Amino acid sequence: MTPEQVALAFVEAVNAKRLDGLAALMAEHHVFIDSDGSEITGRREMHEAWRNYFSLVPDYTIHVREIFSRDRTVVLAGTAEGTFAGRGSAEAALAGGDALLPDNHWSVPAAWRVVIEGDRVAVWQLYVNPDPMRRIIDRMNTR
């Protein structure tokens, strides 16, 4: 696969919430870098981090609008969106047993820097303004 194909396969796995697919596309020493600069290193650690994130934002979706690449680095530009699970479990929300509240939905411009090694993602770095998400979390925590 080309670096662009690997990056887009990773996006597809994220959008489908396929944890095993994500793990299969991560290098063993995979590094996730969040927009605040914090890092999580390791395939196993990121598998668990994605599991937790999908519980928090069960409908998280990445929309890629543009792709730029040079050598083994791919930059994806677009939007990220999702809804924070406000009540009950994320599984219940997805199954229709507990609706995701529209007030907890967010959509933000986003970009990702993806470094590919072989056919695996070695670095997944997110660039996003987290303020819209923080405002929702702050509101949810004050209820």
How would you characterize this protein structure?
With 143 residues, this protein is α+β, with helices and mostly antiparallel strands. The protein has one domain: Roll (Nuclear Transport Factor 2, Chain: A). The protein has 5 helices and 6 strands. The chain has a 6-stranded mixed sheet with strand order 2-1-6-5-4-3. Strand 5 and strand 6 (120-128) form a beta hairpin. The protein is globular. The relative contact order is 0.19.
Name of the level-1 CATH class? Alpha Beta
The tally of structural domains comes to 1
Instruction: Return the average pLDDT rounded to an integer.
Output: 91
User: How many DSSP helices?
Assistant: 5
Poorly predicted runs are none
- Derived structural class: alpha+beta
Range of strand content: 35-45%
Looking at the structure, the CATH topology is Nuclear Transport Factor 2, Chain: A
Largest beta sheet, briefly? 6 strands, mixed
Q: Percent of residues in helical segments?
A: 25-40%
Assembly context of the chains? single chain
Q: Radius of gyration over alpha carbons?
A: 15 Å
Overall number of strands: 6
Write the CATH architecture name: Roll
Shape: globular
| End-to-end C-alpha gap | 48 Å
